[in-house]
């Protein structure tokens, strides 16, 4: 039981930040305020109930501060270039990194999926053409593309998730994105932004996105459309729930694998055997190195997928296909 | 952009409502389950025992915390970073597009100018050739003219000389005739006053003959 418990213990959020608990190096995080004994708020490691500052909260704050530190000088440079009227040429690693990622999010994620339907006249063959049109629109000074207003959100989501994911690979760190609370909040943001933007875009017609047009007599059409409305709304909610669960499950799963691999070392049988211990220990350390490398990849991919799907879902809400 | 901003305001309002709901829910639950807190307080001492519900658990506190901090992060980052960057990128793109358009225009102009100058150059070459031709023609013409003139002058000189010679000869002949006539007249004058008889005639002839003889 001990091993099984350990597996999730190191993956989950906690109000105790353990560095080397066997040496007593751990940080019991302070209680924010008292709360009722609600199972939602029951937290490990502390006596009593209440809302505690947790390890993941601190890690999210670290990610946010990192992001602020990364972006502030770049934003300053961009603003300076704007003020001087010269073209902004990013200089240095940080500026080039932030600019190229932002451009990627704008041109490859946001603009192709969030756009007015009249841009795409034909089938898939015209997709490239549509893209060129949007690029030409901005180049010709037609003002920003309609997707550009969502780019700040998407860029923040991408970097925040990426940093949260990567913090899980830092020693003594953890991935806040491996907790459902965190990912659900992020998915909720996508849902709210998409809905609000859709209502702003089409007003009351927003609802029509959920009612597919059916060419039938009223008596048949009405119940059908009512049912489809329910299905569409449920689908919308499921879509965004899955958005949260996908990120959460990927991060949690990866860290659980790491935890299980390391857990082999401290199994009682292994610890007791002089022969088994070095074998298992070296094997699982090697395995952990490999899986950690894989996790680096997954961290990037999941941040990308979340951002991309967010853009798609926002696009589906704001500019419905029919 | 303003639409997005007010969208964010609505999002912020939603977050605030959620926060209030959470707080209200918490305090409500506290009142309802106060006794439960005391009964399970002992369990709380070994916090780990009730945390073992597996990894899939939704913690509202982390959710609310994430929501609030993430929204604040989005607002701050848009303001200090993303929006200036997007604007700068857009300005740059417009500048690049304008530069490309300008360069294309200039290139077209340059090409037109080049073609024009090439045509001009070709024209100039033809002109030069024509001018050379003209000059040569003129030189030849001039040469011919001069030659003709010289020839004419020479001819004229020759003719004049001939005329002069002829005139001099005529004059000389005239002079000779005049002098002969004068002599004749003189002779005649001398003869005329003595319109005499035969006798006188004879006498005169004899005189003349004598004169001649005397002269001889």
Blueprint of the fold:
The complex is a heterodimer of chains A (322) and B (216).
Chain A: H1 2-9, E1 16-20, E2 25-28, E3 31-33, E4 51-52, H2 55-84, H3 92-113, H4 127-139, H5 151-167, H6 180-202, H7 218-263, H8 268-272, H9 276-318
Antiparallel strand pairs in A: 1-2, 3-4
Chain B: H1 2-32, H2 34-39, H3 41-45, H4 60-191, H5 198-215
Description:
The complex is a heterodimer of chains A (322) and B (216). Chain A is mainly alpha-helical and 322 residues long. Chain A folds into two domains: 1-53, no CATH class; 57-90 and 149-318, no CATH class. Chain A is built from nine helices and four strands. In chain A, helix 1 packs across helix 7 (218-263) and helix 7 (218-263) packs antiparallel against helix 9. Residues 1-5, 41-47 and 119-140 of chain A have low confidence and may be disordered. Among the domains of chain B are: 60-166; 167-206. In chain B, helix 1 packs antiparallel against helix 4 (60-191). The N and C termini of chain B lie far apart (156 Å). Chain B is built from five helices and no strands. Chain B has 216 residues and is mainly alpha-helical. Classes of the chains: A mainly alpha (322), B mainly alpha (216).
Please give the count of helices of chain B. Answer: 5
Radius of gyration of chain B, taken over Cα atoms and rounded to an integer in Å: 72 Å
Q: Report the count of strand segments of chain A.
A: 4
The rounded Rg of chain A comes to 24 Å
| Percent of residues in β-strands of chain B | under 5%
Structural class of chain A: mainly alpha
Largest interface (CB within 8 Å) is between: A-B, 84 and 68 residues
Report the uncertain regions of chain A: 1-5, 41-47, 119-140
The assigned structural class of chain B equals mainly alpha
Based on Cα principal axes, name the global outline of chain B: rod-shaped
| Largest sheet composition of chain A | 2 strands, antiparallel
Major sheet of chain A: order of its strands? 1-2
Calculate the mean pLDDT score of chain B and round it: 76
The oligomerization state is heterodimer
Tally of strands of chain B: 0
Report the span from N to C terminus of chain B.
156 Å
Report the sheet with the most strands of chain B, covering strand number, pairing sense and barrel closure. Answer: none
Percentage of residues in DSSP E strands of chain A: under 5%
Query: Which percent range fits the helix content of chain A?
Result: 55-70%
Provide mean pLDDT of chain A, rounded: 79
Order of helices and strands of chain B: HHHHH
């Amino acid at each position: 039981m001990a091993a099984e418990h350990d597996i999730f213990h190191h993956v989950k959020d906690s109000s105790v930040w353990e560095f080397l608990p066997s040496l007593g190096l751990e940080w019991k995080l302070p209680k924010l305020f008292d709360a009722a004994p609600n199972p939602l708020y029951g937290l490990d490691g502390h006596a009593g109930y209440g809302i505690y500052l947790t390890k993941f909260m601190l890690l999210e704050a670290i990610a946010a501060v990192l992001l602020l530190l990364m972006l502030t000088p770049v934003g300053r440079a961009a603003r300076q270039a704007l003020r001087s009227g010269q073209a902004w040429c990013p200089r240095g690693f940080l500026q080039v990194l932030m600019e190229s990622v932002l451009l990627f999010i704008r041109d490859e994620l946001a603009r192709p999926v969030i756009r007015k339907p009249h841009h795409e006249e034909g089938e898939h063959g015209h997709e490239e053409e549509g893209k060129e049109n949007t690029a030409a629109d901005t180049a010709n000074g037609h003002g920003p593309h309609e997707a550009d207003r969502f780019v700040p959100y998407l860029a923040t989501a991408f970097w925040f998730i990426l940093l949260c994911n990567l913090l899980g690979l830092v020693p003594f760190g953890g991935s806040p994105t491996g907790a459902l609370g965190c990912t659900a909040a992020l998915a909720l943001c996508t849902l709210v932004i998409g809905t609000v933007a859709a209502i702003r875009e089409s007003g009351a017609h927003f609802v029509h996105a959920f009612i597919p047009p059916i060419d039938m007599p009223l008596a048949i059409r009405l119940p059908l459309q009512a049912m489809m409305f329910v299905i569409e709304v449920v689908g919308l909610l499921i879509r965004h729930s899955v958005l949260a669960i996908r990120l959460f499950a990927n991060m949690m799963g990866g860290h659980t694998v790491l935890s299980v691999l390391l857990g082999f070392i401290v199994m009682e049988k292994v610890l007791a055997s002089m022969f088994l211990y070095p074998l298992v220990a070296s094997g699982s350390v090697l395995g952990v190195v490999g899986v950690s490398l894989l996790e680096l990849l997954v961290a990037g991919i999941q941040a990308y997928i979340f951002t991309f799907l967010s853009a798609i879902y926002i696009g589906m809400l704001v500019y419905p296909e029919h | 952009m303003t639409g997005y901003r007010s969208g964010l305001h609505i999002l912020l309002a939603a977050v605030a409502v959620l926060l209030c709901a959470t707080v209200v829910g918490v305090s409500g639950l506290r009142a309802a389950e106060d006794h439960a807190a005391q009964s399970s307080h002992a369990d709380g001492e070994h916090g780990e025992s009730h945390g073992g519900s597996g990894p899939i658990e939704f913690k509202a506190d982390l959710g609310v915390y994430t929501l609030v901090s993430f929204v604040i992060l989005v607002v701050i980052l848009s303001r200090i970073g993303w929006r200036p960057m997007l604007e700068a990128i857009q300005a740059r793109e417009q500048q690049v597009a304008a530069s490309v358009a300008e360069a294309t225009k200039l290139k077209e102009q340059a090409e037109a100018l080049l073609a024009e100058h090439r045509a001009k150059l070709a024209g100039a070459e033809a002109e030069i050739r024509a001018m050379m031709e003209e000059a040569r023609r003129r030189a030849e013409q001039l040469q011919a003219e001069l030659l003709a003139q010289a020839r004419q002058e020479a001819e004229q000189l020759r003719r004049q000389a001939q005329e002069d010679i002829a005139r001099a000869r005529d004059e000389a002949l005239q002079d000779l005739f005049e002098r002969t006539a004068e002599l004749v007249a003189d002779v005649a004058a001398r003869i005329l006053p003595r319109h005499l008889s035969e006798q006188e005639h004879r006498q005169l002839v004899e005189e003349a003959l004598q004169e001649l003889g005397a002269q001889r």
